[in-house]
Structures are given as structure tokens and as C-alpha cells.
Amino acid sequence: MLEGEGGFGAAARLAEGKAPPGRPSSRRMEKKESKSRQNFKVMIRVRPPLDVEIEREQSIYKRIHEDGHMRLRSEMRSHCEPGPSVVVEKNKVVTLFEGGVNLWQGNHSASGLLNMYKFTFDTVLPPQVKQQEMYQTCAKSVVLSTVEGYNGTVLAYGQTGSGKTHTMQGTVQTSRSGERGIIPRAVDDIFSYIRNNGGASGGFENLSKKYLVRVSYLQIYNEQISDLLKPDRSNLAIREEKKRGLFVEGLSEWVVRSPGEAMSLFHEGAARRATGATRINELSSRSHAIFIITTESCELSQEPVSPAKASPMGGRGYAAKPKKVQVGKLNLVDLAGSERVNVTGAAGKRLEECKMINQSLSALGKVISCLTGPSGPQKHIPYRDSKLTRILQDSLGGNCKTTMIATVSPLPSSYAESLSTMKFAHRAKYIRNDAYVNEDLDQKALLQKYEAELKKLRSELSQKSKGLVDRRKLLELEEERRKAEQDKLAAMVALEAQSREILREKEEKRKLEDRISDMQGQIVIGGQTTNIQETHAFREMLQKEHDRIKSEYEVKIRELESSLENVGENKAQIDRYKQLLLKQRDIMIALTSRLNERDEQILYLQEELQAYDQHQRQLEDALDHRTAELISLKKSNAVRGKGEGASASPRQAITAPPPPEVSHKSTSTDPVAAIPEPGRPRKMAKGEENTNPNVLEGYKRLQMQVANNSKERTALKTILRHKIRPLVDDVRRNLSHKSFPEQENVIKDVDALIKLVTATVNAMSL
Ligand SMILES: Nc1ncnc2c1ncn2[C@@H]1O[C@H](COP(=O)(O)OP(=O)(O)OP(=O)(O)O)[C@@H](O)[C@H]1O
Predict the structure, then answer these.
(1) Whose CA is nearest to atom 11 of ligand 1?
(2) How far is the CA of 124 from the centre of ligand 1 (A)?
(3) I want to staple 150 with a disulfide (CB 3.0 to 4.6 A). Which of 145, 301, 352, 569 is the partner?
(4) What confidence tens digit (pLDDT) does each residue in 652-688 have?
């Protein structure tokens, strides 16, 4: 077994009720200490195991003793079945057994591996304690003190799934169920108290006291405060004012006149509270929720007044005057459960929520630590570290009667969390609160404001009640009103239609007037404007105008007709031109083809000439060759017989018959036939003449033909340049001065012709 803070020894010592070190010890101080201790109570509630848990953990809970001790039936005990880890004694002492109580009773602790912790608290509620008893023990006195003007807080703290919501709210929502938690019971109690003290809900009036009850409901989810009764109000800020103290800005407050009204608002808000399923709790609260019930009470004194001024609250001839106002605020806090991430298996959004929850709970732990240090509360208490601690600032070490209920689960598997809760609660035990009645004269105004509102509501109610009595008449009136409404509607529709018609007529009239004035402006006779009604003159004028336009059109038609004729003529002329052009084009083509023929002929003749030249050169070569042979023969003859062949001359040798290879051709008279076979070319010397008559003859003929062609070509060129070209130019000029159908095409043709003529002339000049 381990000893230490919260361990067995420490818990045993504290169970004796001794003050921790550093606490004041003088008698007066002790008295004060005891009073302020009363203002902050810590209670433990151990919930019973749930059926599902019993199954899961295979723990057997068979009997629960009347004194609150929880025992296992011995015959069912088994070393394999650990039993609960929390045992409660005398409703004050709670012992935690690591591994479950069975293991301890089976003497397994001897191994020294298991821990046991014992703690003492003001009250420890064992699992069998019902809601009613729990309420009586933990909350009732705090709740009722708030009706008397104190601040009160009942706060449930504990591991997730340990029973906080069950304690604060209960599981069943029906108003009379025994499973109802602190909140519905507190609401009931407050209203009963008011009734028993002479007040009535809503009106709350008697001769001595008036009450006003209002509720608010907020949640702190992921460090953001939102109004559960006005869902559009979120991320609210906490403010502090001298007169009002701490308050949540923008948090709605609802005046309630009965427990039913208050609870319906509570359920409305609870339905909006952020919840979600965790591995431990199917419907786990993921936010800290605070249901606030503010009760204002006002003592009245009866003062005599004149009968006319007598207040309905006062007796006959008396008026009730407010004496003092007390305001008590009750915070009913259901915290989100502390949890270990590895146990709950939180991930994603749940993990974020879990972090925020643990963060604010650790801020709460820090505040408690600072309030309960060994030498008393520290100077600085970090209330501002979280929204939760800031809102609960008064409840923790301030002006408040506070009860903290720490809930634990009995399961051995929850041992670690239960131990942590116990340590937390044990520490909180040393918080000291100073509670005093809140009396605030300024609050009168608020109460009176609500009183006025109540009066208004009351008068509305009485009006409505009257209406109920005379329901038939009301229905008749309603029917009449409805009919009158319908008539009014119909009349309005008709009026609208009429107005539209009038407007339309007006518009038409205006247009007519405009037209008339336009026409009047146009009709000017003798320098004077004539009225349109003088229709004779107007008609005359119209007739004249008509005649004028008619004659104008006739003239135009005639012009058009004549131009049409012209166009016809032009067309004929153009046709003629076209014919002419076509003829000229044909002539041109014929001339060009003839020219081409001539050119070909010239080329042919030139080739022929060249052939003749070549032949001539060959003949001359042959002649030279024979001459040389002849000379050499003569020389050899002269050497052989002197004087015998001296008469032969080179000139004779020249006129001698040509060599046999060319003679067959030289006999022909045809120049073409006279063309020699290709041979070695030889140029004729200057001034040298061809003496071959056939060749000369052919040559002359060719020269004549070339000359003739040349003349013809020149003549054609002259005709083209000086006759056809001017003629075509003329036609082109004439065409551009006229206008006729297809003019464009004809002009294009003529332009093409001009180009053709020009190109031909140029080609012939080359
Ligand atoms: N004293 C009790 N008697 C019977 N059942 C209880 C008791 N306390 C809690 N339960 C049941 O245990 C379950 C968990 O309880 P509850 O939801 O109140 O836990 P919680 O501490 O508010 O959890 P969380 O922090 O996750 O919101 C519920 O089914 C509830 O009905």
C-alpha cells in the first residue's frame, strides 16, 4: 500500500477533520473557518455499475447493505472477479482498491503491487442512494439559500460516464419521476418555497413579499460560451461591472412563472447541448453546461393611501411599497467529463473536444490548488485561464454557497480516473467561500420593470379571458372584421384599376393633343396657322401636295424609262462592241498563231542556213585536200619526167569533181537535200563567196523568206500598235462613260484584251 497525499494515511488523518497545515487556529478564526467551510462542500457520489458494465467486467453485485456498504456475496466471490474498486463507509469515507476489492480480500495486496486509498468527505453517497436523497443531501440547502438572496452553486465533477448528468438532470424527463436530478428538483423547490412564503408564481404577490424568477442556460464548448436558449448567440464574452459583478454579456434571461415554464426552457436548452458518443458513454456531454436560476425577492411594506391610488397588491386603503430587494443566483453546473484519451479512444473532433475539456478542467484544478495552498489562498488566483473558472469565480473562493459533487464509477477499470477525481475533490475540500445575502437597491428598478411587464401581461391575460367569455361575440366581430377587410381589399383593387384606366386615358389624350399640335404646327396658310378643324383648306392642301408628289413621281418614272431605253441602246452598242472585240480577239489570235508559225519557219530556215554553211565548209575542206594532193602529185611528176605535166594548174584542180563521199548530194537542187553530212566545221574567210549554184540558190530563197516574214511581222506590229490598240482604248473609254447592265463584266473583258494587245506588241518588239 502506498502512502502520500490522498493515500491511506493522509486520508485517515483528514477523516478526523483536522485542519491542514497553514489553516487559522484561533477560536474566532475557527468559527469563521467553520462557517466558510460550510459554504464550500465537497461530496462524493459513487454510481452503481450499469448492466452492460456488469456483463462486460464480469463483476457480480448481488447485495447492497442498508448502511451503504457494498459487499459481494461470498459464494459469488472469485479471485478472477475483481469486484468494485470503490467501497464506501459510513457515508463519509471512501476507499479505492486498485484491481478491485476482491483481490484485496483474497490477500493479493500482500504482493505489494496494488494500491489502496482512503478519503474522507462531508458526504459520500454510495451507489444505492436515490436521486431524492442525493438532492436532499447535496443540493437542497444551497438551492433554497438562493431564494433568500445568496449565491449558490451545485457543481458536478467527474470522469466521463461517472454520472454527472444523471446527478444534475436525471435520466427521465417526466416531471414527477423519481429519477429526476438536481435541476428539476431545484426548480420545484424554488417555486414551492415562494408559494409557501406567501408568493405566487408569476404574480408572486402577497402582502409582504414579491418574487421574480428568471432562468438562463449556457454552455462552454471548445472554450466558447453560447446561449442554449438563444442559439444565435454564441461566442459570448464575460464582463465584470462594479454593480452587477461578473456576467455573461448577451446571455438571455427568461422570466418564468412556474416550474413547468422553467423546465421546458431547460429541456429546450439541453436538447441543444453538445453531446456525442464516446467509448465510455453513449451520450456524453461534450460541453460544460450551466443552468442559472436567478431569484429576486422584494419585501413590501404596507402604507396607507387614498382609495384611488391603492395598489392591487396592497390591502384596501393600503399600497405595497418595496423595502429591500434580494437577488440570489443559483448555478447548476454539469461539467463535461474528464477523460484519458487512450481510454476513451478519442480521435478527430472528439480528440479536439477532449483536449479543450481537459484543458479547462485542469484550469479548474489549478484554481483550486491556488485557493488551497498550504499557507491559504494565493494572492493571484488564475480564474482568467479559462472561461469555466472565470464564470465560476464567485463559486470558487468567492461569495457563494457551493457544493461540489464528485461522481465516480465503481469499476476497477475506472480506478485511475476515480483516484484522480478523489484527489481533486479532496483538494477542493479546503476551498473557503464567504457567502452573504445580495441586497441591491438598484435591483429594484429591474424588479419593477418586470413588475410592469407582469402587469401588462396580466392585463393582456384578463383581456383574453374576457374574450373567452364572450367568444360568440368575438367570432361575430371577427367575421365582420374579416368581411370589412375583404370589402376594403376589393375597393382598393377597384380603385387601383380605375386609377390605371384614368391614367391610360390621360396618356392617350396627351398623345392626341401632341399630334394635333404637331399637325397644327405644320399647317401654315398665308403666314397664319390654321386650325386642323378647317378641313376644306387642309384637304385642298393635301390634294395639292398629292398632285405635286404624283407629278414628281411621274417625271421620275419617265426618267427611269428613258434611262432604261438608254440602257437598252447601250446594251445593243455594247453587244456590238463585244462582237467587234471578239472578232478582233480572233484576228489577234490568228495573227499571233501566224506569227508563231513564221517564227518557227525562221528558226527552221536558220537551222537550214547553218546546215548549208557547214556543208559548204566541208566541200571547201575536201577541195583544199584535193588541191593539196594535186599539188603534191604535180610535184612528184615534175620530179619524174621534167616538162611532161607542167600544164596542170591548181585552178583546174579546184573545179575538178568533188570527192565521191559528197558528190551524190551536190547534184540535188533542193537546198534541204543539199545539206551536207556533219563534218569538221570551217569558217568562210571574209569576202569569200560560195560558188556552188545550188547552195547559192537555196540561200537566196531563204533570205527572201526571212525578209518577207520580217516585213509581215512589222506590218502586224504596226496594225496592232496603231490600229487595234487605239480602237480598243476607244471602246474602253466609251464604256466607262455609259452605264448599262453587265458593264462591269464587259469592262473587264476589254481590259483583258488591252493587256493582250500590249503583251503581243511587246513580244513582237523583242
Ligand atoms: N446514480 C446512478 N444510478 C443509476 N444510473 C446512473 C447513475 N449515475 C449514472 N448513471 C448512468 O450512467 C450512465 C452515464 O451517466 P451520465 O451520462 O450521467 O455520465 P456523465 O458523467 O454525465 O458522462 P459525461 O461526462 O460523458 O457526460 C447513464 O446511463 C446514467 O443513466
Answers:
(1) 163
(2) 17
(3) 145
(4) 434 444 444 443 433 333 333 333 443 333 444 444 4
* Residue of 165, 280, 282, 340 best suited for mutating to test ligand 1, as the one with most atoms within 8 Å of CB: 165
The three cell numbers of residue 148 are: 433568500
Taking the C-alpha atoms of residue 339 and residue 280, their distance in angstroms, rounded to an integer, is 9
Nearest CA residue ID for atom 2, ligand 1? 47
* Alpha carbon separation from 467 to 58, 65, 463, 474, 701 (Å, rounded): 66, 61, 6, 7, 149
Report the alpha-carbon distance of residue 525 to residue 528 in Å, rounded. 5
Residue corresponding to grid cell 512589222: 714
**Is the model's pLDDT at 219 over the cut of 90?**
yes
Confidence of residue 55 (pLDDT cuts 50, 70, 90): low
What is the average pLDDT score of the chain? 74
User: Does 159 count as an annotated binding residue?
Assistant: yes
Element spanning 215, H or E? strand 209-221
- Strands (DSSP E) found in 481-550: 524-525, 528-529
List, chain by chain if needed, residues with CB within 6 Å of any ligand 1 atom.
47-48, 50, 158, 160-166, 171, 281, 283-285, 336-337, 407
Among protein residues, the one with the nearest Cα to ligand 1's atom 23 is: 161
CB 535 within 8 A of CB 523: no
Distance of CA 725 to the CA centre of its chain: 81
pLDDT tens-digit map of 375-423: 778 888 999 999 999 999 989 988 899 999 999 988 888 888 889 899 9
Distance from C-alpha of 696 to C-alpha of 279, rounded to nearest angstrom: 136
C-alpha cell of 593?
A: 498563231
Q: Which three cell numbers stand for residue 447?
A: 424588479
> Binding site annotation covers 242?
no
Q: Where are the domains of the chain?
A: 8-441, 570-765
Query: What spacing in Å lies between the alpha carbon of 160 and ligand 1's midpoint?
Result: 8
Do the annotations mark residue 164 as ligand-binding? yes
Statement: 8-441 belongs to CATH 3.90.1570.10? no
Ligand 1 centre to CA of 269 (Å) is 19
Q: What percentage of the chain has pLDDT greater than the value 90?
A: 19
Q: Give the distance (Å) from ligand 1 centre to CA of residue 44.
A: 14
pLDDT in tens, 477-492: 778 778 877 877 887 7
Q: Give me ligand 1 centre to Cα 10, in Å.
A: 30
Q: 161 CA distance to ligand 1 centroid (A)?
A: 5
Give the number of other Cβ atoms within 10 Å of residue 549's Cβ. Answer: 10
Using the predicted structure, report yes or no on whether residue 183 has a pLDDT greater than 70. yes
State the distance between the two ends of the chain, measured CA to CA, in whole angstroms.
136
